[in-house]
Specification:
The complex is a heterodimer of chains A (272) and B (256).
Chain A (H helix, E strand, L loop, with lengths): L1 H5 L1 H14 L8 H9 L13 H32 L1 H15 L7 H8 L4 H6 L7 H5 L2 H24 L3 H9 L4 H35 L9 H10 L3 H29 L8
Chain B lengths: L1 E12 L3 E13 L4 E5 L6 H8 L7 E6 L2 E2 L7 E4 L11 H5 L1 H5 L4 H14 L16 H14 L4 E5 L7 H18 L2 E6 L2 H7 L2 E6 L2 E7 L11 H14 L5 H4 L4
Parallel strand pairs in B: 3-8, 3-9, 6-7, 7-8
Antiparallel strand pairs in B: 1-2, 1-4, 4-5, 9-10
Helix pairs in contact in B: 4-5, 7-8
Amino acid sequence: MKIALGAVVPAAILLAWHFASRGSAVVPSIGSVVNVLIHPFRDPPDLDATPLADGALASILRVACGFSLAALTAVPIGLLVGRCRAAMEMLSPTMAAAMVISPIAWIPVAIIIFGLTSPATALYGEEAWRHGLLDQLRFAIVAVIWMGAFFPIALNTAAGAAAVREAHIEAARMLGAGRRQVLSKVVLPSAGPAIMTGLRVGGGIAWRVIIAAEIFPGTRGGLGYMITTAHEQASYEYAFASIIVIGAIGLTLDGLLRLGAVRVGRWQPKER
Amino acid sequence: MIRFEHVSKCFVTPARGSVWAVRDLDLACVGGEFTCVLGPSGCGKTTLLRVAAGLAAPTQGRVFVNGNAVAGVPENVGMVSQEGALLPWRKVLENVALGLEIAGLRAPQRKARALAAIRRVGLPAEVARSLPHELSGGMRQRVALARALCAAPRVLLMDEPFASVDEPTRHHLQAELLELWAADRQTILFVTHSIEEAVFLADRIVVMTFGRTVAEIAVDLPRPRDRFSEAFVGLLLAVRRAFADPRDHELDLDLA
């Protein structure tokens, strides 16, 4: 029953799509989009873009780098803000303000700071273009993803760390715990569910931001790039296929992070 | 084993300014003694315990535990709070073994000692795999006691540990605590607002009001104590007379 209800809206969309595509030069048929999806490694014949699978891999790599960097920096800073009053007073207004700025707004700033540099330009200089994926991992794009994911992770971590019960910290101290042990055995596990919420929100934003960030000059691959190029070159079946892949990957990412959140927070009592 | 020398503790609050929770208090608990600090809410008894535990520094005076001046959390001291303060993400076994884990003991030794402590406080071994929220209030307090006893402390500080459980369970827990204490003979400083609990448990009762000790009463009744005996009830009434004060102490704390 639950599955049947959940299938109603997608079925309606497919039906509307089917009718909209009949005789249309703009809306591709469902069959043409499925054809792109079942041949993800095939070079698009009429499109200046890499195969769909390569595009997805490029987007995933960019998000993985930006999101990992965000998690690695935001969790320690969030813990500091949550547990240290001076750090909280110093950083929380800036973080709250930065949180409401769309990460996409940082694209010009990122371009000014990082230009067209990538790990490949740092390692191979003018030969960078030969190293496809590494060259496509532009620092500016990674920085924009980092900006998108950093603040929700940091703010959630800070909220979780601030909410750690003093009685738990004192109990650990009475058992001989020093600062590090209080952090590892009390603060981190206690703030775990809040950190996971931050990671879920941050992961979602990172994945949404990548599509906009791939309009960045010099980008040659990625799902966002494929949508833009497909639109410019009127190969709409690739744009539609990219949108479906974006949704599928986003859903998988959220599912994985939700599983992590359930695992970290399974000690929390559930009301029935 | 525990000695308070002219200890005062002042808190500064935005609403009430400086509040003296403990004022020029002298108290000594000898080794192996069971001392109950009895007083109404807000009289400073929890603060006194926190100062002895090194969780709060005295504004004036000094505290000695096991002969050493307290500066930070002292060694060989265990504490059980009113709510138990079990870590909710850790199973009972992991909670009980926390002190051993912090001390760096290997997992098999930790497990054996923690299981022994769980059994000692009258809990079945199966409880070891439960999370704290899956237990009753009385069981949680037993786990908190097992955690404190697991490290074999010479001094045990207990802050109204049985206040949140029902009366029959409280009586069970009191009797079990006395059995454990009879075997180990730690120095126990036990804070309570229940006169009956203090008379049942203590070798000596220290009555506190307004941050000061107002009476010290030796309890010479033989153990196990009968709550309905004439001597018990007589002592209960004597303590009640020393304790009686109709005013609300919490609201009447002096503003310095």
